[in-house]
Amino acid sequence: TNRFDPAVADRRWQQRWAEAESFRADSLSAKPRAYVLEMFPYPSGRIHMGHVRNYTMGDVLARFRRMQGFEVLHPMGWDAFGMPAENAAMEKRVHPGAWTRENMAAMRAQLKSIGFALDWSRELATCDPEYYGHEQALFLDLLEAGLVFRKESEVNWDPVDMTVLANEQVIDGKGWRSGATVERKKLSQWFLRITDFAEELLEGLGTLDQWPDKVRLMQENWIGKSRGLQFCFRLVGTPPGGTSCDIDVFTTRPDTIFGASFVAISPAHPIAEALAADRAEVAEFIAKARAGGTSAAEIETAEKIGFDTGLEVVHPLDPNWRLPVWIANFVLMDYGTGALFGVPAHDARDFDFATKYHLPVRRVVATSLDAASAPVIEAESGAGVAVNSQFLDGLTTEQAAAEVVRRAETAGWGQGKTLYRLRDWGVSRQRYWGTPIPVIHCDRCGPVAVPRDQLPVVLPEDVSFDVPGNPLDRHPSWSKVDCPTCGAPARRETDTLDTFVDSSWYFIRFASQPDDRPFDREEAEKWLPVGQYIGGVEHAILHLLYARFWTRALARIGKLTVQEPFKGLFTQGMVTHETFQSPDGRWLNPTEIVVGEAGQLVERATGAQVNRGRVEKMSKSKKNTVDPGPILDRYGADAVRWFMLSDSPPERDLEWSEGGIEGANRFVQRVWRLAQSPISGSGEEPALNRKRHRAVAAVGDAIEGLQFNKSVAALYEFAHAIEKAPPSATRDEAIRTLLLLVSPAAPHLAEEAWALRGEQGLIIDAEWPTFDPAQLVDDEVTIAIQINGKLRETMIAPRGLSRDDAELRALGLPKVQAQLAGATPRKVIVVPDRLVNIVA
Ligand code: ANZ
Ligand code: ZN
Description:
Layout: H1 6-20, E1 33-38, H2 49-67, E2 71-73, E3 77-78, H3 83-92, H4 96-113, E4 124-125, H5 129-144, E5 148-158, E6 163-165, E7 170-171, E8 174-175, E9 183-192, H6 198-204, H7 213-223, E10 225-235, E11 247-251, E12 262-265, H8 270-278, H9 280-290, H10 296-301, E13 306-315, E14 318-328, E15 339-342, H11 348-357, E16 365-366, E17 385-386, H12 397-411, E18 414-420, E19 425-426, E20 428-429, E21 439-442, E22 446-449, H13 471-474, E23 480-482, E24 489-492, E25 496-497, H14 499-502, H15 506-511, H16 521-527, E26 530-536, H17 542-556, E27 566-572, E28 575-581, E29 587-588, E30 593-595, E31 601-603, E32 611-617, H18 628-635, H19 637-646, E33 654-655, H20 658-675, H21 686-704, H22 708-724, H23 729-742, H24 747-756, E34 780-787, E35 790-798, H25 803-812, H26 814-820, E36 827-831, E37 835-839
Parallel strand pairs: 1-2, 1-26, 3-4, 12-14, 26-27, 28-33, 34-37
Antiparallel strand pairs: 5-6, 5-9, 7-8, 9-19, 10-11, 10-13, 10-18, 12-15, 13-14, 16-17, 20-25, 21-22, 21-24, 23-24, 28-29, 28-32, 30-31, 34-35, 36-37
């Protein structure tokens, strides 16, 4: 027997599949359809192990579905716009387009070398005008439908580099390059009206029963539906007949209204801004409160600071009760009304704030009426009964809240209100490497859509990255155009779209790609929704929510009828690897480490002792990555694919290990050895036959449930059974079945072995084997035979054998007769199907 040689086999079968166009999806096919999709990669340079694991899972499913008789769509493309390309341009002086395309070529070749069953004829890259031009058309469709609008909003501004920063470029409130304290600056930007869809996006989650619960929960929290009360505080000193509402607040806890001890407004609140215009110390405070990034996380973690304005408001339920008005940095201007009333006893932020500024802490919720005067040691935000709250006393939190809303509505000072935490999606990016927003700004006409016949608006090639900021702004001619409406000199929009827009519809374009429009509805809907989407849980919120929104927006304007883009979602675990660190905390790659004289690990360069770190997600920063390239060269595609599926459940992390890949490689060789068994042609082996049926059932169930590690385990067991069985026609059939069952995971090996055994055609064109349910029940059992309590023998017997028959058979066994040496047993105890104990 010889060894399986992937260096020859891998390329041979990849070529054969390509020639036969085996993985080309036919939109006109009459077969049932399956759309299998993995989140498309960002072309960062090379394929990493995480990609290999993700795409292997999708590939197994796609191949399985194809063999089951489905017409399969399994496409691949590139999420090709984004900042790393611009960073490379700044650092390496290479054009972002050139850098991106080179990476795509390298990664495409790598993906092909792993033998993924992809329809490369549908490959797309979001940085191609053939893609983003259609995106511009869709943007204009949404603009016409009123789902796109323009609004002033705050961005992170780096005052040294004079550039807008993305949230991830703000580190601890400082610009990532300049190190300067980031400021917030107002810019006019484009927004998509995702808040219009808040309720349907929330309700739609209920239909996604093939999504992980945790992802649905994360989206639910992100949408953040809150029911509460909105009401007005009047400022003390407002003349009667003046404005009826001075400070509008929103609360989710109207039941705590008698526990209020202050009102807080956002630094961006109009009242704060008005005060700042007159008083320098207010302006100073606001500037301080606004330092740092704009992200919610930055605001949450920043130290709480406040400024007492000296203004006072009147409590809505007690005209003699006055509350001070503070400006506080933790109040967001774009949530609710940008103002709140603080209840220190029952809200953690308010408690911190009150402690710092010596404001009263008043208990208004307790476990019972008796506990009304219990001291408040920390904020108690849970429900209970109302106390110290006049007419609310004794009501539960829920009842008290409803009662306050009722009174407010009856008396007219407030009304019940539902809020969503979800904000409209700001899509303007002050960057070059993205989809140009197809709008022209005219002094007379305002923003005007680029006429459709002038799409795509193509990015200019001649740009420079030697200074910070957006090269489109600096380009001498690109933005200078005439207004399409009035003909006056006007200016092209120089912002580009958030790359999440690109990934919000690529799965539709995969399904249908006419030249003259983004997609053909009928053709796209032959495939949509995606049956199984597979990707990282890091996309649980933004990408998956934006794609759901975009799909619903297209449905609302009549471009689609599907409402949800992804029927099934699977989020796979990460690939991890051990880490090493020098005593001074530098991460070390295994190649930088040698074994010292005492067997300890030392750093090659310094001779210093090396500490073993934890097993962590492979990352460049921790220097614990394993490049798939050399591993593929050494072991071939199938061993790598097999290992990716083997050791862990797919939703868990998989630890890369030398032992794991070696084990996978050994299995590949075992199957190859079995494939070389001579064909016997005759003889039945009922037990092996049953095992074959069981393997077919188990592997099919496991792949169907995306439990790839279980399919691997079932195949190990089946291969072992075949190895132990004597030659027979049943064994020939078992080997044939084994090849079919391993083929989704190890397709090159399977094709090679299929041909070797004289089978006709490609194994990928063969049918997935079926099983007979009657063969799945195990009708034989192994019974232990004991003599005086000691195990002496075992026997195989039909299940359900009677006590008498079991005793008879046991006593007839040669070993038992020898032991008894003619003596009659005193007693025989039978446990049916398990045990016969002979007392001699
Ligand atoms: C009084 C109160 C008492 C509150 C209490 C909470 C607990 P969610 O649940 O996320 O919707 N709030 C209102 N507007 C805000 C803003 N613009 N920025 C920051 N916080 C704001 O949060 C609603 C609660 O957050 C509101 O209910 C308000 O504080 C605060 F025991 O009002 B609450
Ligand atoms: Zn004009």
